[in-house]
Amino acid sequence: MRIEQLLESSARRYSDKIALVSGSTRLTYRELNAAATSLAAALQARALSRGERVILFADNCWEAVVGIFGVMKAGGVVCMVGPSTKEHKLRFVIRDCRATALITKDRLLPTVRGAIEQTSSLKTVIVIGEGDDASASDGILHFSDLLVDPGAPIRPPGIELDLAMLIYTSGSTGAPKGVMMTHQNVVAATASITRYLESTPDDIILNVLPIAFNYGFGQILTAAKVGATLVLEKSFAFPQLVFEKIRAEKATGFPLVPTMAAVISQMRDFKPGMLPSLRYITNASAALPTAHVLRLQELFPSARLFSMYGLTECNRGTYMPPGELAARPSSVGVAIPGTEAYIVDDNGIELPFGSVGELVIRGPHVMKGYWENPEATAKALRPGPFPWENVLHTGDLFRTDSDGFLYFVARKDDIIVTRGEKVSPSEVENVLFAMPGVREAAVTGVPDPVLGSALKAILCVEDGFEFSASAVIRHCARHLEDFMVPRFVEFRDELPKTESGKISRREAARS
Prior knowledge:
The model has no long low-confidence stretch (mean pLDDT about 90). It is globular and about 70 Å long. By secondary structure, it is of the alpha/beta class. The strands form seven sheets. Strands 4-3-5-6-7 form a five-stranded parallel beta sheet, with helices on both faces. A hairpin with an 8-residue loop joins strand 14 and strand 15. It folds into three domains: about 5-15 and about 25-180, Rossmann fold (3-Layer(aba) Sandwich); about 235-410, Rossmann fold; about 420-510, ANL, C-terminal domain (GMP Synthetase, Chain A, domain 3), CATH 3.30.300.30. The N and C termini lie far apart (about 45 Å). Helix 1 runs parallel beside helix 7 (about 215-225) and helix 9 (about 260-265) crosses helix 10 (about 290-300). Helices cover about 30% and strands about 25% of the residues.
């Protein structure tokens, strides 16, 4: 099955059911599917060929969802780019994937115009909104003008083995890499996720996560797969407004990331049971600190909390069955259904429980590689236990307990060596998060002539709390081995984030 067929199937089964809520716009499955078909016809009429790349440079809006399914119905490859992306990076992505079309919001046109000045592949630019001074005369098409009855059937888009998406990683080292995901990869991951979430057509998912990134994008597919309703919000900047929307829409699902969990956990006026409609809460992007897991369980007593681990190269890797969370609050669980996850040493040999090694993911959801980057592909996709396959080496260090449950330790390149010992920043951060009033925390290494690296804790504290560096160090000394105790403590108002909402240790160390 191809991705757009998830929408088409639900449009046949639930034609008059609300599929998408975005601001004041409410689209049924029939309307959403029809709009996507119209856009597909318009793209094909403008010579979009099967397999050509189309960039979607937009925020969370109904037009972006139509754009995703429309591009796929036309046989194109979707390349999502977040709205905060700067001109130089957008230019890089256009050039790297040789995009032939781009769909964007009117407010982002200045960035687009700057990015395409020195590119040659783009044939079509489509703008959502008024488009400022944009007109057909300067090569700009209006999104709304393309949503007309196509009049004739669209050409078949392709098969499930075709490339569906190029997802550019953040590029913490070197240039961003385009992760290649086929329709088969994405549909397999979606089927597994909806299975363990026990998703149904009655679900109403409220999503504030950017759909330009994998976790937010996945909410669109989860809803389309089962015929659920997706409520799109643009951000979590004003939590109380989001909570009001959850109540108004009677949302049953609420995906979040650790930075959102930290905000909710510290809200003094948020009481247990205030959002009774929620059936489940999910967390991915990064592992939740144990203190936040326990606090979320307290605040949402009727909701099941799914703590998960994922990365762009496979969408989702593990999940924690909610019934096991109380016994293992710091675990991210086991491999998602239909896949395998195990830990290996530097030679690729599987390790016994308790050992720390690199997590390897095996399954139909694993990417096909990095776009036109064979060197990076060979590093990530290596021969597996059987001769017919490659498996994904994640670059993340994990350990397992005696029951096979997985625990995130650190990114391989995040490990700090101090006093000759290896320290996982996340292990120290978990201890810091257990201090009441700590909103954000990052642990970095500072060059030291004796220790090699000395640990530095960078904290953001909630209003009404006062901390001293010595109090933080004493707290860590009570809970950590001596070589893991930070030597320096710094307080800030806010920590830098990646576009997907994670705290960026690298940027925190630089600033």
